[in-house]
Amino acid sequence: MPEILEKIIALIFLILLSPIFLILYLAVKLTSKGPFIFKQKRSGKNKKPFYIYKIRTMVENAEELKEKYKHLNQADGPVFKIYDDPRFTKVGKIIAHLGLDELPQLINILKGEMSFVGPRPFPVAEAKRISKKYEKRFSVKPGILSSWVIQGAFHDNFEKWMNLDLKDVENKSFWYDLKIILKSLAFWVKVISNAF
To answer: Structurally, how many domains does the chain consist of?
Structure first.
């Protein structure tokens, strides 16, 4: 998808979703200490570092607690993933499981750092530990959506995850991206309906 088109769509979404952002802001700020927006340095295209934006869903010192919960890591690769992460706040857990914490990445698209579709960006330290055979996943901008994201469950199979990322890179085109976006919308509607 052309970058200028992505930026226009991202801006429109940010404007339309502003009431949702206000509700989420109040939900986060009234139930836990810390900033509304969490930012973290991630590896982008060609591993160029950038700050990703997310709605904060964990306790304020979540990064410091990472080492404490290292033994709970469920991913089988050089990454840190816990589905029911004990660092989640009560409200944050709901926001994260509905995928609403990713909405501020529309700002990353406006800044030209991310796309709607592409491999999810790893924290810089984790990206350095990714095997060279998966290097191609860093040849495109990272995305909010991907084949891995819409699998529908927590995934601890790192090799499968990387192969799905490579599939997204190799097939990247306007129509392929549109297919992933439509599948993602269908998946999100299903998640929301199941939640309520």
So the answer is: 1
Whole-angstrom distance, CA of residue 50 vs CA of residue 33: 25
In sequence order, the 6+-apart residues with CB closer than 8 A to the CB of 182 are: none
The tens digit of pLDDT for each residue in 154-170 reads 566 888 899 999 999 99
Cβ atoms of residues 48 and 124 within 8 Å: no
Q: What is the pLDDT of residue 1?
A: 82
Q: How far apart are CA 69 and CA 36, in angstroms?
A: 23
Residue 24 has a CB neighbour count (10 Å cut-off) of 20
Residue 66 is part of which domain span?
3-195
φ, ψ of residue 50 in degrees (nearest 5): -150, 165
pLDDT, tens digit, for every residue of 69-113? 988 888 787 888 888 899 999 999 999 989 999 999 999 999 999
